[in-house]
Amino acid sequence: MNDKTLPAQHQERQPGIEHAMHPEPVYLADDYRAAGKLAGKVAIITGGDSGIGRAVAVHYALEGARVALVYLNEDEDAQKTLDEVSRHGGEAIALAGDVGDGSFCQCVVDAVIAKWGRIDILINNAGEQHPEHNLEALDEAQWEKTFRTNIFAMFHLTKVALEHLQPGASIINTSSVTAYKGNPMLLDYSSTKGAITSFTRSLSINLAPRGIRVNGVAPGPIWTPLIPSTFSAEKVAEFGADTPLGRPGQPAEVAPAFVYLASNDASYVTGQMLHVNGGSVVNG
Questions:
Q1: CATH 3.40.50.720 holds for 36-274
Q2: N or C: which end of the chain has fewer CB within 10 A?
Q3: How far is CA 81 from CA 177, 217, 250, in A?
Q4: Does the active-site annotation cover 189?
């Protein structure tokens, strides 16, 4: 059985760089047909420079939304995403900083309101992961940093954005299949994704009386810069082979789930997770 799905490769730094990947991820399928589902809306997308964030930004632009890309320091990837949004007829701004810092989250919201005067969609997508073979090797600093980026950031940004979210607004959080299946090498990451799933469900109930929907997407193995910057070249070469579909997914295969959840097509959907994971049945 051939379990090789990608060329072996590794990047030494996190966050990873999309333009250094081979092949580069597919962020838009040739047969995608937009229908103006997000016309006039304004979206904030964390981790918006590359991977799933880039794919969501381009799809949202095609659907008529203006997008604010929030990223850490991957300037070249962020510029590429800005260019692609523009090429597809959209409007975007890019804001660099650490979403684990509450004061930066306030700056993001202030900048978007100053630019467009509204926020309709909040995509909490930024994340990091650092594999360790056992709990003893996982130090407190890494544990805290992963939680700060992956779940504290959602708390900070959602809290400051809520002042500007009106009935009909949508919050979409990126969880992971690891929240449901676990991962022996990603103890801190999997734990944050479980927290994100619970945060999504609880916040959806909390905000339902205000007419704000809260949902999530739980991707499986998706080919993004996080992968070569996390795993060894040998692990990358086998990435996604253990799914029922036998391959990793592309960001372009995840982004339509974010379009659906933000659009009026999902007007009766809140507190839910969409599992875009290559066929793993997780019942959650």
A1: yes
A2: N
A3: 26, 21, 16
A4: yes
Quick one: pLDDT at residue 1? 40
Q: What is the pLDDT of residue 173?
A: 98
Q: How many residues does the chain have?
A: 284
Question: pLDDT averaged over consecutive 10-residue blocks of the chain (284 residues)?
Answer: 84 89 96 98 97 98 98 95 97 98 98 98 96 92 96 98 98 98 95 98 98 98 94 95 97 98 98 98 84
CA distance 244 to 260: 24
**HEC string for 237-283:** HCCCCCCCCCCCECHHHHHHHHHHHHCHHHCCCCCCEECCCCCCCCC
Count CA within 13 A, CB hemisphere, residue 194: 12
Q: How far is CA 88 from CA 30, 39, 123, 278, in A?
A: 13, 14, 20, 28
SS3 sequence, the chain?
CCCCCCCCCCCCCCCCCHHHCCCCCCCCCCCCCCCCCCCCCEEEEECCCCHHHHHHHHHHHHCCCEEEEEECCCHHHHHHHHHHHHHCCCCEEEEECCCCCHHHHHHHHHHHHHHHCCCCEEEECCCCCCCCCCHHHCCHHHHHHHHHHHHHHHHHHHHHHHHHCCCCCEEEEECCCHHHHCCCCCHHHHHHHHHHHHHHHHHHHHHHHHCCEEEEECCCCECCCCCCCCCCHHHHHCCCCCCCCCCCECHHHHHHHHHHHHCHHHCCCCCCEECCCCCCCCCC
> 133-146 burial, b if ≥16 CB within 10 A, otherwise e?
eeeeebeeeebebb
